Design the sequence.
């Protein structure tokens, strides 16, 4: 393996800031947390060790999801009670995931991340459908929100809470291991299995992402794995990007862009798995 | 009377913006300040869990108060566990 040349100390923060803006805006446009793209960049382009990369990504995920969460709950899109039930599971998973990750070698983290990228890629190829689940009953978990595009109040019943809890536990563990938000696991389950309309599912999932990432981030933080110099450019990049991405969202519903990015994720998923198996010296 | 939703929204926004501001200041000044900023960011989601917990406690809704308490407990346990 060739030795890396010593980089200009200012190069890495600037590169992270610029890529963060790109990743954050693309992520917001495609309904994907910026974490997935950021972590690929940190590991494969900047050669940052996997555990440090996961820790940086988690901090950025806390910032961007809390910022979006603040808007969603103000607009009453979030199902607060459902979030409180599911986050007990996702937080438990996050702590377990962070522990597991810290006892695993770097190659295992790369292999798991590779699998997550493949899974994300598959969900992006599928179309999201939004079906109404009928009217709400008297259950305390049933929710409603005002859909601005459809100009009506949507009411829904929450079903299959047990499966939702299981999915949240798994999403939390994956989040703690590879530093992504985990919305890619929760949102499809909440939508398809729990019969929650996609907008409420995305808002409620996003609301839980902040606390999930925080639960595992605190363990990485205590273990001294959060790079304090690189934190600011990572967070700023993702947040500025997400700000612009959200504004571009209405104009871009491009299926081509979505599928192109799905292929990019599958490509890097393959790279990471080959790298983990020692078959490729990137 | 403040709504719990508006209160949570305010806690999240204020926490993130101050955390980002402190971390960025730390980038130019010192890692100790950056450390504080990252800590503020990590604590922000837990502040909103505490807020929600207090709200449900005031409504004598014990199930949701207990769920909030459980999540806080997990954070406290996690913050005492250090690896390496």
Sequence:
């Amino acid at each position: 393996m060739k030795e890396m040349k010593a980089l200009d100390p200012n190069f890495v923060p600037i590169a992270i800031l610029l890529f963060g803006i790109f990743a954050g805006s693309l992520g917001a446009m495609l309904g994907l947390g910026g974490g997935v793209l950021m972590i690929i960049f940190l590991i494969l382009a900047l050669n940052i060790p996997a555990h440090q990369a996961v820790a940086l990504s988690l901090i950025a995920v806390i910032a961007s999801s809390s910022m979006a969460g603040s808007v969603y709950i103000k607009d009453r899109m979030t199902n607060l009670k459902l979030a409180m039930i599911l986050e007990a599971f996702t937080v438990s998973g996050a702590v377990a995931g962070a522990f597991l990750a810290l006892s695993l070698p770097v190659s295992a983290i790369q292999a798991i991340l590779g699998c997550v990228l493949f899974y994300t890629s598959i969900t992006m190829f599928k179309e999201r459908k939004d079906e109404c689940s009928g009217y709400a009953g008297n259950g305390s978990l049933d929710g409603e929100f005002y859909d601005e595009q459809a100009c009506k109040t949507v009411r829904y019943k929450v079903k299959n809470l047990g499966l939702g809890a299981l999915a949240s536990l798994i999403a939390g563990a994956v989040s703690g291991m590879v530093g992504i938000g985990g919305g890619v696991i929760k949102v499809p389950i909440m939508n398809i299995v729990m019969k929650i309309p996609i907008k409420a599912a995305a808002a409620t999932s996003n609301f839980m992402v902040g606390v999930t990432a925080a639960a595992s981030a605190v363990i990485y933080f205590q273990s001294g794995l959060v790079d304090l110099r690189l934190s600011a450019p990572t967070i700023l990049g993702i947040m500025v990007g997400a700000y612009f991405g959200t504004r571009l969202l209405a104009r871009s519903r491009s299926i081509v862009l979505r599928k192109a990015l799905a292929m990019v994720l599958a490509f890097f998923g393959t790279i990471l798995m080959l790298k983990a198996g020692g078959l490729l010296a990137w | 009377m403040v709504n719990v939703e508006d209160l949570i929204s305010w806690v999240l926004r204020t926490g993130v913006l101050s955390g980002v501001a402190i971390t960025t200041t730390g980038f130019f000044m010192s890692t100790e300040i950056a450390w504080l900023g990252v800590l503020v960011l990590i604590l922000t989601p837990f502040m909103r869990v505490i807020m929600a917990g207090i709200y449900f406690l005031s409504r004598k809704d014990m199930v949701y108060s207990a769920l909030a308490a459980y999540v806080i407990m997990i954070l406290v346990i996690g913050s005492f566990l250090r690896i390496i």
